[in-house]
Design brief:
Layout: H1 9-16, H2 20-30, E1 36-37, E2 43-44, H3 47-61, H4 66-70, H5 74-83, H6 89-103, H7 106-117, H8 122-142, H9 148-170, E3 176-186, H10 193-204, E4 207-216, H11 222-225, E5 231-236, H12 246-258, E6 264-268, E7 284-286, H13 290-302
Parallel strand pairs: 3-4, 3-5, 5-6, 6-7
Antiparallel strand pairs: 1-2
Length: 303
């Protein structure tokens, strides 16, 4: 399958959050965009049209009238956008990250990220920019607005930054040695960014971690229990398990791992919604968000 380079007006609506009806008006009244037409007279927009619309939308959301924006050249539009980038850094970064995604431009992504980090902590960048970006491109991929390669390109760049920041804090000697956190994804679960970031926060809080990554069968967890006693396992459940309920998975965990050592299981991710109202074991916890996990770590540090 070829990478998507032509976009429908519905795609533009999804990417810019401007209604298709409004885009048609801007196009007809102000000649703002120049779509191609299929043999059946359906509009098709190329990347240049899309990126221009993202710039126009940024300025429009900043209060500029569309009639004024339409009179500007593309260079003038770009200059205005850059001029306002310091005032609206988050909005500007999201727009640029989407442009970098569409062009597979890693340099632009990294330059924008570096500018953000000059005044923001990695945690702030992750929560305020990376998470909204990942959520948005996930929806864009599900609706067919962007190609899967676009989604993977951005996800891998975000993952790289999490790993790089993790490597820095991993060099510090743990301050709290009373427990070890073992992080893993169950077999066939591949959505790793949330778990990677959880590892970063646990290390940053001063705890020791053992990061196993994705596709870990439950039997493999037994080997870690031979080396550490007070273990808290942490896992992220986005699409797995499929053939059993999450409650069944926990029961299997207790019978397979829980009998070997007095360990706990902390669970995160979309699938944990299945556990609403379900009574968990004493050492098990469900976290609805990464923020809740961070709060729990603070509690442990002060206990």
């Amino acid at each position: 399958m070829s990478v998507k380079t032509l976009f429908s007006i519905k795609d533009l609506e999804n990417l810019s959050n401007v209604k298709a009806h409004t885009i048609r008006i801007w196009e007809k009244r102000y000649n703002l965009l120049e779509p191609n037409r299929t043999e059946t007279n359906i509009r098709q927009y190329d990347l240049l049209n899309l990126k221009k619309l993202l710039n126009v939308t940024f300025l429009y959301n900043e209060g500029l009238k569309i009639s004024k924006i339409a009179k500007l050249t593309e260079d003038e539009i770009s200059e205005l956008v850059i001029g306002k980038s310091d005032e609206k850094k988050e909005e500007y970064a999201l727009k640029v990250f989407k442009s970098a995604m569409l062009d597979f431009d890693a340099g632009l992504f990294l330059q924008t990220y570096d500018d953000l980090r000059k005044k923001r902590s990695f945690r702030v960048v992750f929560f305020d920019i990376f998470m909204p970006l990942l959520n948005e491109i996930g929806l864009l991929w599900q609706t067919g607005t962007i190609d899967p390669s676009h989604e993977r390109f951005v996800s891998e760049l975000v993952k790289q930054q999490v790993i790089l920041n993790t490597e820095k804090v991993q060099r510090n000697t743990p301050r709290y040695m009373d427990r070890v956190f073992v992080l893993y994804l169950p077999y066939e679960e591949i959505h790793e960014i949330g778990l990677l970031y959880a590892n970063y926060e646990i290390l940053n809080a001063g705890f020791k971690t053992v990061y196993l990554g994705n596709n870990i069968p439950m039997d493999s967890l037994k080997f870690v229990t031979k080396h550490h006693k007070n273990i808290t396992f942490i896992s992220y459940f986005t699409v797995i398990p499929v053939k059993q309920t999450l409650a069944d998975y926990i029961a299997e965990f207790e019978s397979t791992i829980g009998t070997l050592t007095n360990c706990g299981l902390w669970l995160m991710g979309y699938k944990t919604r299945e556990l609403a109202g379900h009574k968990l074991g004493e050492n098990h916890k469900v976290f609805s968000s990464l923020s809740d996990l961070i709060q729990q770590l603070e509690t442990l540090k002060n206990s």
